Amino acid sequence: MSKSDGSIPLNKNIKEPVFLDNKPKDGCGIVGVISKESVAYDIRYSLRVLQHRGQESAGIAVFNKGIKCCKGMGLVYEAISKEQMNELEGNVGIGHVRYSTAGSSTFENSQPVVVKTDVGEIALAHNGEIVNADALRKGLQKKGWAFATTTDSEIIIRLLANEISTTGDVIKAIKSLMGKLVGSYSLVVLIEDRLVAVRDSFAFKPLCIGKFKNGYMVSSESVVFDTLGGTFMRDLKPGEIVELMGDSIRSTMTSSPKNHAHCMFEWVYFARPDSVIEGRLVYDVRREIGKTLAKEHPVDADVVIPVPDSGRAHALGYYEGSGIPYGEGLMKNRYIERTFIMPQQEDREMSVVLKLNPIQPVVDGKRVVLADDSIVRGTTMRKIVQLLRNAGAKEVHVRIGSPPIRAPCYFGIDMKTRDQFAATDRTVEQIAELITADTLGYISLEGLIKAIGRPSKDLCLGCLTGEYPIRIPGEKVRFQKQIDVF
Ligand code: SF4
């Protein structure tokens, strides 16, 4: 498959990668805190812990007589200045870090979104993607509604405000809203001084509750509670609304779906290894994936190394499963921005070299197993394989902790078209040729499901199988077409 001029034979219509790191990007991280003390710094620290879930913008909204919101572009420390933090005085608030998957990357689209209504002010932070957003927006525009942003989060907050106005009851309004939304959504909402967390009926995105000395928190990932000295209580249940009050929480269930659809990528790549999702420590799942890879795709080799940092636990698991010594064969430059745009082709070529450098003695003259979580386009992996060969690796055997990605994600991950995937219209052998690996082994679907430790009926595997947990026009559906909210 490699062309004689050495260039990479990409699929027809494939777009050249623009970002330095062409891993799939998660949509967002969210947090909500209620306390006897001021919460702004707790939210800021939480967002820094969740920074891996979004680096384009960050924002905090707190209630103190009214809702005060500060947000900006960039990482948390860039987006919200110290001076702004001084203005965020209040005992209840929410926060958000964003990577745009629906709506462009602009300040206007950053979150939390805040609206003034006749029932008071509402602020909302959303992780996920609303599949019927366009239909909802068009329907509302026909009724004369105007929208200030292109995000689906604005649709949610405007619908919610309307429902509260109509029903006069926050929980009833959220239930009614959930009946209208199709897609993935974990939400934290401030309705004046009330803090409410919501998880869609399929529970695509993680959301969990924790307790700390002066109150309660809700967060995309449990690692936030560890960092702030709190304790993890539990995940929100699929279809659950939880109101967090100063000294208690109140739960309302809205549906009883027969299956759930937790995104398998949370365990494979997105979430931090030190987070617990649906009862499984992410680090343990990744090690299990590595062990399974060793069983499913054994090879005679001298050293197993990770692509740092994403493949570290997978590589450790491969070592545990195979007995092949573990080594750190690639050093990562941590100071290269994840979303650094590389406008020129030669800059793009440089991007991987800037980010990763081989530790030559670890790989020189060796048969190397290289472990990572996934291959999307294949261009980065090809460059890494070549780096290792240039550093003297005799053989490079690539082992991947997810089955081939072949189908788009409609639920908040930036994998939108089939033509971008290395696995589209290619066999595994052809992908191995594309990335110039001696051999390539992907974990099997069954192996992945077993490593995650959840029944397949409770996982979203849409981008691997092309069968989705909810109905998407033009795609195959796995289970129920929709869930009734009662
Ligand atoms: S399609 Fe893939 S990336 Fe998207 S939610 Fe499902 S498993 Fe996750």
Written overview of the protein:
The chain has 486 residues and is of the alpha+beta class. It has 2 domains: 28-260, 4-Layer Sandwich (Glutamine Phosphoribosylpyrophosphate, subunit 1, domain 1), CATH 3.60.20; 282-453, Rossmann fold. It has 16 helices and 25 strands. Strands 3-2-4-1-10-9-11 form a 7-stranded antiparallel sheet. Strands 5-6-7-8-12-13 form a 6-stranded antiparallel sheet. It has a 4-stranded parallel sheet with strand order 17-20-21-22, with helices on both faces. The protein starts with 27 loop residues before the first strand and ends in a 9-residue tail after the last strand. Mean pLDDT is 89; it is low at 1-21 and 339-343. The chain binds iron/sulfur cluster. Residues 204, 263-265, 409, 411, 413, 460-463 line the site of iron/sulfur cluster.
Number of strands: 25
How many separate domains make up the residues?
A: 2
Indicate the mean pLDDT.
Answer: 89
Strand percentage lies at 25-35%
Overall CATH class of the largest domain: Alpha Beta
Give the termini distance in whole angstroms: 54 Å
Low-confidence runs: 1-21, 339-343
Largest beta-sheet characterization: 7 strands, antiparallel
Q: How many H/I helices?
A: 16
Question: Which percent range fits the helix content?
Answer: 25-40%
Small molecules bound:
iron/sulfur cluster
The CATH superfamily of the largest domain appears as Aminohydrolase, N-terminal nucleophile (Ntn) domain
What is the strand arrangement across the widest sheet?
3-2-4-1-10-9-11
Whole-angstrom Rg:
23 Å
CATH T-level topology of the largest domain: Glutamine Phosphoribosylpyrophosphate, subunit 1, domain 1
Question: What CATH architecture of the largest domain would you give?
Answer: 4-Layer Sandwich
Structural class: alpha+beta
User: Quick one: overall form?
Assistant: globular
